[in-house]
Amino acid sequence: MFCFGGLEDKGGQRMRLNQLEYFLKVVECGSITKAAQELYLTQPSLTKAISSLEAEYNMKLFNRTSKGLSLTLEGRDFLEYAKNVIESSRALEKTFGKKDNPLVQRLAIASQQFDFIYDVLLLLYQENNGPLLQIDLKENDRGEIVEMVEECKADIGILVLSEKDSKIFKSEIQSKNLEMHVLDHSSVYICMGKKSKLYDRQSIEAKEAEKYLHVVLDTEQTFRREILYKADCLDGYGHEHLIFCNTIGVCKKFLEETEALLMAHKWVLGVFQGTEIHCVPLYMDGQPYPEVNHLVWIKRANEPFHPLEERFMELLEAHFSD
Prior knowledge:
By secondary structure, this protein is of the alpha/beta class. The chain folds into three domains: 10-96, Arc Repressor Mutant, subunit A (Orthogonal Bundle), CATH 1.10.10.10; 105-181 and 296-321, D-Maltodextrin-Binding Protein, domain 2, CATH 3.40.190; 188-289, D-Maltodextrin-Binding Protein, domain 2. It contains eleven helices and 14 strands. The strands form three sheets. Strands 7, 8, 9, 10, 11, 12 and 13 form a seven-stranded mixed sheet that branches. Strands 4-3-5-14-6 form a five-stranded mixed sheet, sandwiched between helices. A hairpin with a 2-residue loop joins strand 1 (62-65) and strand 2. Helix 1 (10-29) crosses helix 2 and helix 1 (10-29) crosses helix 3 (43-57). The longest helix has 24 residues, at 73-96. The chain is elongated and about 85 Å long.
């Protein structure tokens, strides 16, 4: 992270931003003389500003030769940070610099792949179809979702927990100052393509499904390692019966072209509507498999929702209430 050390007042901050802008202009022009002309500064003033910047961060930004200026290796790295700082400063000024500026309504979500979330976002858009609506949906695995919410790259995370790992997960998010809320519960379903010998079945017993190749969807790296080193992580399934895929599209391809089975929760079944993928409930000893999957959402603790986020959650909860 780039930060300005030792800033004490707004004037100091402004000066540092000016120095970075001067630095970017010198890089653009490739010459102190030309940059000074475009900035309406004297050449000595600009040279002094660049030298002060180099002294501040104890690095040499330019190689100075008779042919002109070129960035040092440190200068090239510094350039990327300087661009980010200036762009962020300009965005802040544009958004918040005037009291009458309309604020962009922003919704940032990190989620696993689900069939319902697109419908909820469409409803939200239809209610707020003005020009200043920004919806960011990042579809990731569970570990990345937690990380994005923790690091403020997303404000709401939506993911699935199993009975086995929910207790550990609760402890993990509490340690990260996050909070968790349950939305829904699901049993287990088996999805398969036409090449599967079980394709025409209306339900499948767990013992019966063990001998087939299983596609595992959207599994984070830590849990993946546990599966590889502990054969009992997925009851009854050895390493030779597992293939890991992190998108529905890849899973669908394997189901269509092989005898592979996909164990899934109900929140992805809609993705297969209109395809030849057949989805049926998994049974255990003649009874439907228990509701071992839990759909949850997470956010940073004690942080209030903006109106758009609050409305999204209302629509999401209404979806499952219905």
